[in-house]
Amino acid sequence: ASMAPLPAQARDAMTTLLLEQSESIYLNMNRWLANIAQTRKLAAKITGAKAEEIAFIRNTSDGVSIVASGIRWKKGDEIIINDLEFPSNVYPWLNLERLGVKIVKVESKDGIVSPSMLIKHVTPKTKLLAISSVQFSTGYRVDLATLGQMARDQDFLFFVDAIQSLGVLPMDVKEFGIDFLSCGGHKWLCAPEGIGIFFCDESRLDLLDLTRLGWNSVENNLNFSNIDFTIKKTAGRFEEGTTNLVGLYGLQASLELLLEKGIERNEEHVLNLNEHLRHRLAGMGYKILSPQDEKRRSGIVIFSTADPSQNEMLVKKLANEKVLVIERGGGVRVSPHFFNTMEDIDRLLSLL
């Protein structure tokens, strides 16, 4: 949930590319372009999108900003967010207040912000709802399908920050009615930093003005001698310049690994690990801060000692034993992935 270890496959793919670039410059350009296209298909598969609806971005904030700066806002438009969001999914929206856009921040309760809590704040002026698929500070798994239906019924746009779920929990942007999705690669996707996935539903492409343009935003982008300002008809229009090819090679290898294992399998495995962790922690007297409702559980479990002031010391103690957890949401956040085992969880418990 913070930064995943880079799989050997991703490391090796990136190293191979760097060796190619040091020895042959871009004599392998055709293969590079083919790998970009293949990675786009993999990104579409893991999100439930079409390849033409996928763009590669630098990080989650990049995708949020594409939407926030691209929509033609009117004074009085309303955007619904909540008080659990990571800053990446807050600041780009707050920046719109200078345009007269109203930011409606819904207050959570016990680490939860449910559809019933959000719908109370929908008005005829609601333009967009922005929310994370899983909340970083509680592990609360949002009911995306209900929110997507609500967006369609009430006629507003639906934006999802998927960085705390994509790769470990199933995602289907079409089934969930998502208009825009952004996800950096370095968490549950197990990719390097500096590369991520952006989804824009094909029906929403023209809702976003291009605030960044370059040679790669247009059709026939490799014909440098002919200036033809015809914007791409795909989400590729948001990739305005040279691709982070090294990062993309890492992303490709990580996506292949995740999809080979199967996202549903990853979900089942991680939830089983976390159920074991929850049960043992409760028996040891620790307080579970993450949601108890099974349908709202994710890859994140947050717990606290009886004296929360001791959490920081506990995190440092575990780090000294090479067990990586982090302080979040008033407790200690644990976030195992598909590569972790029950033995890993039991070792954590033994150290506690």
Automatic annotation (TrEMBL):
Keyword Hydrolase: no
Signal sequence segment: none
Domain Aminotransferase class V: 30-348
EC number(s) stated in the UniProt entry for this protein: 2.8.1.7
Cofactor(s) listed: pyridoxal 5'-phosphate
UniProt keywords, alphabetically: Pyridoxal phosphate, Transferase
GO terms for MF: cysteine desulfurase activity
The protein's name in its UniProt record: Cysteine desulfurase
UniProt source species: hydrothermal vent metagenome
